[in-house]
Protein 1
Amino acid sequence: MKRTSKQQVSSVAKKSVSFRYLIRVHIFALLSVALSFAHVGSAQASPLSDETSLRSPPSLSQVDRAKLPSHDSVRGSRIRDLIQDVDHNCLPIVDPIASFNPAFHSRAHHKLKQTLETVQNSELGAWLVGIAADQGVVVCLDKATNLEAHYRYHLRLIGLNAKLNAAGRVVFLAHELAHIPQHPKFSNDRRFSPMDMLLLQRMREAAAEAVATRVLWQLRDRNIPTPWREKLTTAYRDIAMEFAAEMAGNDHKDKELWATRAAFHQWFEAPWRTEIYDDLMLKTLSRITQDQAKQTPHSLQLSEEFLLDIANYAGQVFLIDGDGRTLIRDLRSRSLAERTRARLHEMTTAVRPMAQGAVLPSVKNKSLSAVSSNPTTKQKP
C-alpha cells in the first residue's frame, strides 16, 4: 500500500491515514497466519506436495542415528566433492523416517524426507528404506548431475536430480533404493569376463527397474497414484505398461511377483536401453583393460543359480527357477549390438585367459513357490 504525503494534508488527516494503515497491516498479518495454517493442512493431506508437515522432534537416541559423514572422513570428503552444499542438500536415511534429526531443516531436507515417507507407503518400499537405513545410506539433491538419479555403492550415496518434481523424486528414488540390496554380491568384479560383467550390469538395471515399478504400483493401490502416472511419462513407460498388463491378466495370489518378472524381461526389449548401459560398461571395461597393473585373470564364471538371487527382495524371488529361460544365454545376447560384441571380444583376448572350472557357487532359492511355467505362453501356476 502506498502512502500519500502531500503538503496540503492536515496533521489530523495524516493521523487518520496512519491509523487506517496500521489497521490494514494487522488485518493482513492475521490473514497471512490463517493462510499459513491452511497451507500446512494441505501439505499434510498431500503426500507429494513440496512442503512438509510439522512433527514433534525425535528423541535424543533417534537424533544420534541421523548424522552425515564427517568432513574429515574419506567418505565425507568424497561426497562433498560430488554434492554441492552437503549440509543443506543431503539427508541420512533413518528408519522410521519420522525420526530424522531436527537439525536437518532446509527445504531440500524436507523434500527428501517427504519423498522417503511416500516410498514407505509401499510395503516393498518400506523394506528398501529399512535396508538403506541399516547400511547408512545418504540421499542428496544433486544440483550438478546431468542424470535423473544415481547410486554410488562405494560411498553409500543416492543422488537425485534437484530439478525433479515431487513425483519424479519418488520414481527415481525407488529405482536407486532397489540397487542397494544388489551390492556387494552383484558388484563389478575384475575376475569376471567382460561379457559376464556386461550381463551383471544389465541384470542390475533390469531388476532395479522392475522392483521400482512394483513399488509405484503398490503406492497406486494405496491411493498415491501420482508417481505411477509420472512413470508413464518417462522412457520406461513400456515397463510399467507390461507390469500393469500382467496384473490385469493374472489371478494368482503372487501376481505382483509375476508382474515384476514381466517388467524385468521387458527391460531387455528396447535396444536403445541395452545400448546405453552396454556403452557405460564398455567404458568401465576399457579403463580396466588399460590398467595393466591391476589386471586380473578371468577366474570366475556366472551360474544360473547365482544370477537368480539378484531377484531376491524381502525374501521373495521374482525370477522363477526352472521357468524355461536361460538367463545367461538369453539375456546376455539380447539386443547386443555388433560393435559391442566386437569390443567385448577384443577386451576378453587382451586379458589373460579365464581359468578352467571356476564357477560361482550355486545359490538355491525358492521363488514363487518354486513352480515351473512356460514363459512363452504365460502359463500360470
Note: Residues 194 and 346 are 10 Å apart (CA to CA).
Protein 2
Amino acid sequence: MFIRKVRQRGLGVSGRSVCLAICGAVTLLVGLSSVVSAGEEPGVYERVVRSTVWIVTEKGEGSGAVVKSQDGDSVVVTTFHVVQDAERIVCFFPSFDEQGEVNSDRQFYLKHAERLGIPTRIGDIDPERDLAILELDAVPEDARPLKLASRVLPGEEIHVIGNYGWGPLFGYSCGHVRGVLAPRDARERGKSGLGLASSAEMPMPLNGRVLVTDAPVNEGDSGGPVVRQRPGGEIELVGLAQSYSTGRLITNAVHASELASLLRGDNKSFDKRLRQELVAMGFKPKLDPAGLFLVETDGRTVVIPGVLPAEKSGTFGIWSPVAVITPRNSRAMAELMREKNALEGGRLEVRPTSEGYVLAYSRNLSTDLRGDSLRTAIDETAAGCRQSAERLQEHLNKSE
C-alpha cells in the first residue's frame, strides 16, 4: 500500500526559480550522460553508484551512501531531514541491465519494490548536524563501504550522485569545494537561512563543519555521496549532499568528519541511552529538530530534553502542550494560570514552538529519575495536560 501511494502521488517536483531551473537542467544533462557513459570520470561513477541508495519514505525521497560502522557492519548514511518523522523507510540499490548500465527509471523500482526494496530502520540520528544512520535488512555484496576523508581542501574536484526529483535516479554531477565552514559559522548560516533551502523548505540545522561547493544539488539529492578521487585513484567520501541556495549556485554538504564523529557514537543532539530507555518503556520517541524527544501517551504529546544535565543531582523539565495561544483563548488562559489550585506536581507556563506560543503543563524532574519512575512522571504530565485542557475549556465556556 505504501509503495502504491508513492507511485500514484509521484515524487517529482518542479523548480522554484530561474536559477534553480538552470541548475537542474545542467545537473540533468550531466546526470543523463553519467548514467550511460559515467560522464567525465567513468571510474568514479561506476565505483560509487553501487554504494548509493535511493531512499523512499511516506514523506518523500532522498539519497544515501554505504559506509562501515564502528562494528564493521555496512550501514547507510543520509541527512536527517530525509527521514525525519518517517514511519516507514525503504532503500533501493541501483539495478543494472545486461549491458551493465544503471536502470534510472523510478517506476521500474516501484513496480518491483517487493524484490528490490530493502526494509530499513533508523540506527542513529543527529538533527543538529542533519545526519542519520540507517540499518538495512541486507546490503548487496558489491555495495562496498565508502572510505571517509579526514581532510578536505578548497579547490578539490568533487563528484555527487543523487536522486533529484525531476531527473533520472542515480544521476551524476560534479564541481569543486569552495571552502569549509566551521561549526560556529555554519550555525549562524543555518539560523539566518541565507537563502538556503532543503526539501523541507526550511533553513538547515548546521551545527557542525560544512562543505560549501558549486556542485549542482537539487531536491532528492539530499544525503547522496559527495566524493573525491585521490591521485592514486582511491575514492573517498568527503561529505553528504545537504542543501542548495535559492539565490546563488552554491550548495552545502555535511563534512565527512561530522559523519565519522556520529559513527563513533558522538551525538550532539540527544542521549542514545535515554532514547533506548524510552523505547523499552513502550514509547516510540520522535526527535524534534531542536533536539527534543516527543512521546505520545494518553492522547497527549510529552516533550523531553534529548540531552539531560550531566549533574547527578540536577533537574530537567518535561512538558506537554495544552493549547496554542490565540486571541480567542488568551484571556481564559490567563485566568487558568492565576488559579491558586494549580495541578499537583506541575505548573502552567508559556512556551514558544514552531506552531506559535503554547500554554504548557510542565514538571521538573530529578536527573536520577529513571525506569518506572520516569514512566510514571511522563504519564502524570500527560494527565496534568489533559486536566488543564479541560479546565481551559470550562473557562472558555463561561466567557461565551
Note: The domain at 272-399 is CATH 3.30.1460.10 (Yope Regulator; Chain: A,).
Protein 3
Amino acid sequence: MAGLWGRRKREQEELAAQDADLARRAEQALVGADERIRTTADELVFAEAELGESLTSDLRAALSAVRTHLREAFQLHQLNHDEIPDTPEELRTRNARIVQLCDWAQDLLDEKTAVLAASVAKVRRAPEIVAQVRADAEALSARIPHTKDTIERLSARYADSAMHQITASAAEAEQLIAFATHGADVSERRRAARQNEEANLALETATEATRRASALLDAVEDFEIEALRAESTLAEIVADSRGDLIAARTAPQVPAVAQAVTALQAALSALTPSGSRSDPFAELSQLREANSALDEAIAKARHRAEHPLPSVQQVQHAIDDADRQLGVTRGLISGHRGWIGADARTRLAEAERLRGDLPSPQPEDTREEALALARRVAHLASEALQLAQRDIDSSRPQDQNWGGGGWGGGRRGGGGGDIASGILGGLVIGSILDGIFD
C-alpha cells in the first residue's frame, strides 16, 4: 500500500511540474507574440512607405487577424490570474490554448514578412535593377542587325511555313527593347515623385520585356540549329524508308501493306527537290508517320501469316458448342439445386458471364478473342457439369439399389449416372467436331 501511495505522489508531482512548465511557456509565448505584433506593425509602416498599400495588403490582413486571435489568448491569461480559483485541468487547457495561438501568430507573421522582405529588397535595389535593364537593352539592341541578317539568310533556304516561327522575331524584339527602356525611365520618374507602387510595377514590366526580347533573339539561333538537325534526320529517314519499300516486296501482300507502301511512296515523292526552299519540320513529320505506318503494317501482316485468322464458321461452331454445353450444364444444375455444391455453381456462373462478353465473330479484329472465349466457356461448362455430377453421386444413399430390384433393372445406378454419361459423351463428340473444324 505504501508503494502505491508513493507512486501516486510521484505522478502528481510530475504532473504539477509539467503544468508549471506549461504555464511558464504560455506567459513567455504571450509576451513574445505581443512584442512581435509591435515590431511587425513598425515594419509594416516602413514597407508601406517603400512599396505602397497594395503590395503590403497581405501583411496588413495577417497582422489584423493575429491581433484578433491574440485577444482570446490575453483573456485566457487574465482568467488564469483572477480571484476565482481554477482546477488544474482548466489551467492546463487554457495555457495549452495560449501557446497554440501564440505559435500560430508567430508562424503567420514569419510567412508574410518573409514574402514582403523580398519585395523590399527588390525596391531597395531599384537603381541597380534599372541600370541592369538599360545595359541589357543596349546589349540586345546590338544583336538586332545580326538577327535580321540571319532571318534573311534562312528565308532564302526554308519555306514560309517553316519560317513563320521567327519571321517577326527581330521586329518584336525591337519593340520590347524600346518598351523596356521606356519602363525604366517611368520607374525612375515615379520613384522620384514618391509613387513607389507605380515605380515598382513599371520596373517589373521593364525587366520582363528584356527577358522576352532575349528569348525571341535566342529563338532565331535555336531555329537554325533545329532546322539543320531536322534536315539530317530527314536524310536518315529517307534512306530507311527506301529500305523499307524494298523489304515490303517480300512481305505478305495484303491490302494494308499495299496502302502503306503507296502512302510512303507519296511522302517520298512530295519531298522538296534539292536547292528549293523546304520545310524540314513538316516533311520530317509526314515521312516519319508514313514510315512508321508501313513498319506496323508489315509487322501485322507477318504476324497474321504466322498465325492465320480463324474463319467465321470455325468461331461460330465454337460458340454453338459452348452454348450447347452451357445448356446441358444449366439444365442438370437447375434440376438438382439442393444437391449441387458451390464449385459447380461458381464455374457455371463464370461461364455464363464470359458468354455474355463474347464479341461478334464477324470483325477480324475480334475473331481470335471470340474463339478463345468460346473455348473457355465450353471448358468451364464441362468442368461445372463434371463437378455437378460428382455432387449428385455423393448425395445419393449408398445402401439402396437405385434402378434395380423391383424396378426390373438388374443394373445399379442406371438413372442419373447413365444420363450424365450420355451427356458427357455428347460433349466429347462436340469437342471432337470442334477439333475437326479447327
Note: Residues 196-248 form the longest helix (53 residues).
